[in-house]
């Protein structure tokens, strides 16, 4: 079923772009996409764990501890079972460089995520490989260039200001759900170009959240009442909704990502098909939303524990001496930038990335057969004392010009991934987090409520377990 969906998309792409492609040759080149995962890994140390679930329960309970135990017992390359998939856990920047730079085209992102994301996001950028991925990514880049970013900033800043202004005077303010809702509002306007409030936005939000839940559903069939079935209904709603907007957006003026995707031609003057626009915009919403919500929650978690850092960031923001933030101000907040990166080092929003080998290859001296899923864990490598000084300490100065710990290896910092699939929305995310912190820290000093529980959750989404209850003091 997954393949059928992908194949339709692939055929459409050929027709829509009116390209002369040798279909047989392309099919051969893509033959790895038809192969099942290889689990014949007995020659590599490690343990898969329980049948089917593998080590999922242990990872959900203690992500870091489980990886730590594997790494110390079996070394940087070890067999592991997680989320219904059996593959290899790979730990360490040198291996990440090999996988992400991928000079010999040995690693597939599409097949790495085939078990987890393809049910809802087949054909999206992360689930594409090679030339097709490069081709589509190049077209999408226009939506992330400076003129577009300046336009997004103008839309998001007043919205963030007016929403955070309303937050004052609450003594038990649950930050996580509030910021999640605010970012969805911003996304409606900057990604889709619709109002973030009202009945349409509510339906879009619900459908989007249902798709997110559907991804986590254990049963991957459309049985009524299941998360998966609700997710599929949400997916259909969003598809129809985007379809209703696309014809107008082909010609209308607009500074939202949907409009960019509808109007940006490739080198031959061809546009994305409706199907491609829909897939890319849906995935963008997914890739942007929880990740940024998680990042901001962890910044507040860390600067809530460290009032000195909270004040240093506020001082930097106040030193701008402005009521509102403009695009040129973004570079004038280096400490805020470093604080976001440091929060993502300690608590990466994407804790585990996946790839699959396309052909047999050597990793760390082990023969790794074709079609083997690789699990890449920045959450662990970001805490390795070999690469970071006192990794348990929240210390944004480590990213400053004097120390540059993130430059000790080209792949010791993976907060936004690396290589060809590096986060296309990184600058958008860093801009949005800065704009948020600018308005929030200028308006409030905050601390945790007395009953605050400092536990962190890793799965399904890294976040403070009790949604970060805060006491906000208006300044
Ligand atoms: C703090 C927020 C964010 C974090 C931590 C984050 C992290 C990441 C990471 C780690 C990857 C690489 C995944 C891999 O290689 O397997 C990635 C890819 C991606 N991200 Fe982000 N992301 C964030 C925000 C955003 C935003 C705001 C957007 C869109 C506006 C976005 C769109 C994407 C897309 C489309 C990809 C796939 C790129 C490709 O396959 O070429 N992300 N992100």
Automatic annotation (TrEMBL):
Molecular-function annotations in GO: oxidoreductase activity
Domain of life: Bacteria
Keywords of the record: Heme, Iron, Metal-binding, Monooxygenase, Oxidoreductase
Pfam families xrefs: p450
Cofactor(s) the record lists: heme
EC number assigned by the record: 1.14.-.-
Family: Belongs to the cytochrome P450 family.
Protein name: Cytochrome P450 136
């Amino acid at each position: 079923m997954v393949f059928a969906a992908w194949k339709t998309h692939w055929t459409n792409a050929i027709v829509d772009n009116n390209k002369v492609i040798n279909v047989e040759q392309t099919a051969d080149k893509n033959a790895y996409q038809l192969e099942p995962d290889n689990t014949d890994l007995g020659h590599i140390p490690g343990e898969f764990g329980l049948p089917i679930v593998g080590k999922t329960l242990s990872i959900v309970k203690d992500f870091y501890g489980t990886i730590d135990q594997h790494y110390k017992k079996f070394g940087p390359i070890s067999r592991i079972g997680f989320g219904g998939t059996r593959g290899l856990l790979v730990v360490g920047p040198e291996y990440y460089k090999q996988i992400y730079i991928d000079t010999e085209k040995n690693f597939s992102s599409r097949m790495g995520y085939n078990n987890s994301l393809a049910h809802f996001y087949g054909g999206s950028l992360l689930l594409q490989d090679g030339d097709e991925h490069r081709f589509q990514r190049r077209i999408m880049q226009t939506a992330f260039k400076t003129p577009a970013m300046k336009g997004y900033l103008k839309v998001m800043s007043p919205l963030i200001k007016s929403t955070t202004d309303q937050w004052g005077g609450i003594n038990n303010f649950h930050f996580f759900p509030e910021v999640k809702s605010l970012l969805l509002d911003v996304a409606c306007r900057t990604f889709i170009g619709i109002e973030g409030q009202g009945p349409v936005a509510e339906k879009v939000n619900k459908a989007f959240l249902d798709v997110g839940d559907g991804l986590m559903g254990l049963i991957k069939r459309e049985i009524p009442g299941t998360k998966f079935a609700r997710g599929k209904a949400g997916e259909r709603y969003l598809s129809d909704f985007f379809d209703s907007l696309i014809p107008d957006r082909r010609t209308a003026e607009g500074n939202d990502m949907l409009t960019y995707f509808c109007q940006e031609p490739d080198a031959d003057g061809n546009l994305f098909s409706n199907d491609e626009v829909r897939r890319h915009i849906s995935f963008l919403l997914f890739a942007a939303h929880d990740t940024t919500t998680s990042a901001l929650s962890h910044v507040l978690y860390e600067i809530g524990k460290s009032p000195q850092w909270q004040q240093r960031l506020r001082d930097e923001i106040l030193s701008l001496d402005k009521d509102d933030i403009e695009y040129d101000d973004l570079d004038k907040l280096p400490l805020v930038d470093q604080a976001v990166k440091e929060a993502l080092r300690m608590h990466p929003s994407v804790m585990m990335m996946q790839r699959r080998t396309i052909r047999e290859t050597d990793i760390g001296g082990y023969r790794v057969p074709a079609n083997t899923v690789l699990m890449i864990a920045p959450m662990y490598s970001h805490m390795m004392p070999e690469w970071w000084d006192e990794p348990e300490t929240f210390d944004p100065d480590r990213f400053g010009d004097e120390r540059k710990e993130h430059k000790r290896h080209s792949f010791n910092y993976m907060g936004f991934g690396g290589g060809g699939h590096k986060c296309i929305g990184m600058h958008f995310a860093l801009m949005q987090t800065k704009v948020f912190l600018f308005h929030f820290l200028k308006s409030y000093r905050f601390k945790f409520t007395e009953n605050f529980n400092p536990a962190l959750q890793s799965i399904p989404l890294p976040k403070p377990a009790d949604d970060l209850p805060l006491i906000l003091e208006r300044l």
